[in-house]
Amino acid sequence: MATHFFGDTAVLTGRTMRHVTRSVDTIITTAIMPIAMMLMFVYVFGGAIDTGPVEYIDYMLPGILLITIASGISYTAFRLFMDMTSGIFERFQSMPIARSGVLWAHVLTSLAANVISLVIVVGVALLMGFRSGAGVPAWLAVAGILLLFTLALTWIAVIPGLSAASIEGASVFSYPLIFLPFLSSAFVPTETMPGPVRWFAENQPVTSIINTIRDLFAGQPVGDDIWIALAWCVGILVVAYVLAMVTYRRKIA
User: Fold this and answer.
1) Which three-class secondary structure string do you get for the chain?
2) How far is it, in rounded angstroms, from Cα 30 to Cα 152?
3) Among 46, 59, 242, 245, which residue carries the largest CB count within 10 Å?
4) Closest by CA position to 148, among listed 99, 103, 201, 213
5) CA–CA separation, 130 vs 34, rounded Å?
6) Is the model's pLDDT at 3 over the cut of 60?
7) Cβ-Cβ contacts under 8 Å for 114 (sequence gap 6 or more)
8) pLDDT in tens, 71-84
9) Contact by Cβ (8 Å): 173, 77
10) pTM > 0.85: yes or no
């Protein structure tokens, strides 16, 4: 049964990956908005924001990476919605394949597409002056956190992809996720925020993730933030996965 699942998932992933490679503009579009934000914040607002001895590009890059992921998963919901409305899901149900492999194919494609977008954004950041004192273990830790965060958000994307009534409805869910880093430590220190906003910024999921990635890039001790970040990512992943599978079973019942 496990071999059956992995084989079916590999074949279905190849199918969804071909859709991405035939529409490279989706990856480029995903990267363009975060890059535009990065250019604007660094060259327009960066001089007015005090981040101490840390260069502003180094300070704000972790937030930009999370925005890149939040932007990219909207295409996952879009691709899944198109499969649902085209009738391909009904066709798959009539074939002797692992049912969950259909969803996992979209999830793995999302991971691959987002990795490409993240590499593009980091490449542009390096051209803009981003520098990191992190060693290989720290870079691997950053990659692991970003992949876990991508996986968690992708399973969130699966839910509207399965249940939305329109293309717009399948994609609009990502807007709050894109906006969330703006109410965090991504672009300005939380100490500069008024009381209620500061409380929310310091206790919402992405702040601990951003702080952890920032410390890893700087080669500094991460403290408790890494455990809080991992707890948020794993918690969101588990809840989103369960809800997605429940939605999927109801949809195909």
Assistant:
1) CHHHHHHHHHHHHHHHHHHHHCCCHHHHHHHHHHHHHHHHHHHHHHHHCCCCCCCHHHHHHHHHHHHHHHHHHHHHHHHHHHHHHHCHHHHHHCCCCCHHHHHHHHHHHHHHHHHHHHHHHHHHHHHCCCCCCCCHHHHHHHHHHHHHHHHHHHHHHHHHHHHCCCHHHHHHCHHHHHHHHHHCCCCCCHHHCCHHHHHHHHHCHHHHHHHHHHHHHHCCCCCCHHHHHHHHHHHHHHHHHHHHHHHHHHHHC
2) 18
3) 59
4) 213
5) 15
6) no
7) 30, 68, 69, 72, 73, 150, 154
8) 888 888 888 887 77
9) yes
10) yes
Task: Tell me the C-alpha distance between 121 and 187, whole Å.
Answer: 16
Tokens of 252: 């195909």
The tokens describing 203, both together, are: 């206790």
What does the block give as tokens for 59?
Answer: 């300070």
- Can you read off the two tokens belonging to residue 181? 């880093």
